[in-house]
TrEMBL record:
Family annotation (SMART domains): AAA (SM00382), SRP54 (SM00962), SRP54_N (SM00963)
Bilayer topology term: Peripheral membrane protein
Membership in a protein family: Belongs to the GTP-binding SRP family. FtsY subfamily.
Binding site for GTP: 114-121, 196-200
Enzyme class: hydrolase
Record EC number: 3.6.5.4
Protein name per UniProt: Signal recognition particle receptor FtsY
Keyword Cell membrane: yes
InterPro entries: AAA+_ATPase (IPR003593), P-loop_NTPase (IPR027417), Signal_recog_particl_SRP54_hlx (IPR013822), SR_rcpt_FtsY (IPR004390), SRP/SRP_N (IPR036225), SRP54_GTPase_dom (IPR000897), SRP54_N_sf (IPR042101)
Catalytic activity: GTP + H2O = GDP + phosphate + H(+)
Quaternary data: Part of the signal recognition particle protein translocation system, which is composed of SRP and FtsY.
Chain ranges of the SRP54-type proteins GTP-binding domain: 281-294
Lineage start: Bacteria, Pseudomonadati, Planctomycetota, Planctomycetia, Planctomycetales
Superkingdom field: Bacteria
Amino acid sequence: DRLKRGLQKTKEVMRTDVRDLFKAGEILDDQKIEEFEARLIKTDMGVAPASEICEEIRKKHGGRTVVLDDIEETVKEKLRSLLEGEGDTKWDIADPLSPLKKNPNGLTVILVAGVNGVGKTTSIAKLANLLLKQNKTVVLAAGDTFRAAAVEQLTMWANRLGCEIVTRPDGTDPASVAYSGCESALESGADYLIIDTAGRLQTHANLMEELEKIKRVISKKVPEAPHESLLVLDATTGQNGVSQAEHFTKAIECSGLILAKLDGTARGGVTVAIRQKMGIPVKYVGVGEQIDDLELFNSQGFVDALFE
Ligand code: GDP
C-alpha cells in the first residue's frame, strides 16, 4: 500500500541492513552490532535511539547464534516503543480523522504552520481531501499572505477539490484572513476550517506574535479554537526538521505533526528522533505528490511497513 511504497527508501536501510549485516548461524559479535548502530544513525533517528536499539540486541542476542527473525523482532519492538510515547499514536487505523480533536459544538478549526517548501500547501490540500472523503464540509483560509504564490496554489487546490476558500490580497494581516475564514465557515455551517499560516522563517518573536494574534482573533469567533495546531515538517531534511520543530513549538503549542515527503528519503528514522525530542505525535505522513498520498501515522503500521 501507500505507506509501504512511501517508506521504501528507509526500508532499504532498515530491513535490508538487518538481513545484509547479520548472517544466520553466525555468532553475533559486538563489531556487527556497532556496524548496525552506525547504519541506524544514517536514518537520522538520532544517536540515543540507535544506541538503545543496539543495546537491546546486545542484551538479547549478543554472543549467541544469529536468528534473523528474532533480531528483526527485537528491532521492531524497540522501534515501536520509541515511536509510541504516551500511547497517543495508537489511533483507530480505520478512521483517518481519529488523530484530530473535534469540536463537539460545531466548527472544528485546524491551524497549519511550517516553513516554505516543506510541503505545507500540499499537506493542507491532502488533509482537506481526507475530510471531504469522510463527507465533511471544509473551508480553507489562505493565511500565508506573505507569499502570493501560496495563495494562488491553495486556491488552485480548493477549486480542484471543490471546497470554499477565503483569500485576501497579499500583505493582509494573516489574522484578519483567519478571522474572515471563521466567519465564512460559521455562516456556511462548515464542519472544518483549515487555516494556512505564513511560512517564512521568522524571528522567534515575530512568529510568536503572528500565531498568537491568529489564535486570539479566531477564539473570539470559535471559543477553544484552534482545536488542532499542526506543524508540517519535511522528512528529507532529517535532523534539520527537528530544529525547525523546536523553533515552532516555542512559538505555538503544536498538537501534532505532519511529516511530508517521507517517500523521498531514507531518513525515515527522523520520525523516531522527532518523537523522542519533541514529545509531539506525528499524526500524518506525506508519502507522495498526489492528493491521496497522506497517511494516518500509526507506530505499528509504520514499523510493519519498514520490515514487510
Ligand atoms: P510549501 O511551500 O510548504 O507550501 O510546499 P508545497 O506544498 O508547495 O510543496 C513543495 C513541493 O514538495 C511540491 O513540489 C510538492 O509536490 C512536494 N511535496 C509535498 N508533499 C510531498 C510528499 O509527501 N511527497 C513528495 N514526494 N513530494 C511532496
